[in-house]
Amino acid sequence: MASRAGSLNGKKNSEKTKIAVLGMGHVGLPTALGMADLGWEVIGADSNPQTIATLKQVKSWFYEPDLEPLLEKHLKSGLFQPTANVDQAIADSTILFVCVGTPQGDDGKADLTQIENIARMVARNLNGYKLIVEKSTVPAITAQWVKKTITRYAQIEARNAAKTAKNGKHAGEVPHFDVASNPEFLQEGRAVENFFHPDRIVMGVDSDRARELLEAIYRPLNCPIVVTNPTTSELIKHTANAFLSTKISFINMVSDICEAVGADVTNVAQGIGLDPRIGTGFLSAGIGFGGYCFPKDLRAFAYLGEEHGVDCSMLREVERINTRRIDLFMKKVRRALWVVQGKTIAVLGLAFKPRTDDIREAPALRIVEALLREGASVRLYDPEGMPNAKRMLPEETGRVAYCASAYEAAEGTNAVLLLTEWADFRNLDLERVHDLMDVPLMIDGRNLYDPAQMQRAGFEYHSMGRDTPVQFPASIVKHHPPAKRSAAQKTSKTRKRERAVVG
Ligand code: UDX
Question: What angle (nearest 5°) sits at the alpha carbon of residue 228, between those of residues 227 and 234?
Fold first, then answer.
């Protein structure tokens, strides 16, 4: 990535303004390195000394494509300086990007403890003008609280300083500061790419100075910029994630209807997605969404609405549909295997999505837990997610095995489950997998293969929202005895089964 050092008032960025990114996680680290690559001097602060020590050894503590080369480049260039001294980072910088965690609290409400801590630290270190930028996903009106908190504690600091006259003639004054919202839209696995090629930048500001500073940072990225007030900007982020989650649950519901009537959900998604009003993205049916963002953001957004008396049952339904995906998938497993108890099952994919090692709220892990509860033993493989998975679910002889490849996982199994849409799993050597398995049965939770191709390769293949024989709705079946199906209505699987019985 070429450096595109911008300028502010004719001066080199680094001479004029220093940036601190507070929180070196999945959002903070790519953001800090991206801004260093744009030519800014960036302090990357995190209170966890282990995280900082790892960064100094030119390693990221989580897997994210293209991140480590950027880390190496800007540790060398000196534009990125990691530190565990968060107070010092705040004191030394003018623009502070807040990238700390906003986990789920009680009842799905966002837990903003870490945001409040940062606001209090800023108050302690307010030694001149500062722009505090919320990047973490937060509910609407958090910026107002941050502003109020900084003012409250900075006034106390100023009063104390006046008493001890520590700050000389400036004691008692609270320096000016701004709080802005600039939500991240970084997808794990594509965070670096998303930073440099954003669809849009949203900035919620309530002063020209804040707007100018943020525009100076993002100008080289050359993308549409939506400027609004901080509360609207906060709401844009929650709305985006809620809408994308809704799209996924919607297509998953359609997928169930497709299975019931014998339609193909991938074709339905294509058929509707080509309408630009709908769009093709986020219409892949499967075992549902996971990760650190969608599930908690959806709950926090519903909580926010309900707190203000808004009926958010639609969002609650989106979550309910997503939670039910696991039960529906397990029904598929039982239908295919009959008895799950005592079966050996290969699970390909543990991370909540491809190109990440993140297993937080991963649907795959919930399926693994369900398989174990039903008495199966599992052989697990994921290209990046296994170290994290092992911490949650340790290896156990005869019950839980971690394997070095998809092929090792498939060896001697009664079924292979495809649970994460890694590119590697789309291109398996099917003949090899077939030969390694005891029973060539594949249940594909992400629709990675074409049913006809799998049939040709000799697999019994089940997927999501496709290839199920036509069934008449219960009401019709109840009143009219089902007519014998014609040869044309029979699926090739039924015909094969009949041939097998006759033969
Ligand atoms: C999300 C948002 O996309 C990003 O803008 C935000 O800032 C952080 O949260 P991320 O959590 O990395 O990003 O994952 P994303 O790529 O959005 O996928 C979320 C989940 O939805 C994954 O589990 C994925 O497998 C699932 N998914 C996605 C589907 O099941 N079907 C789809 O069509 C798309």
Answer: 115
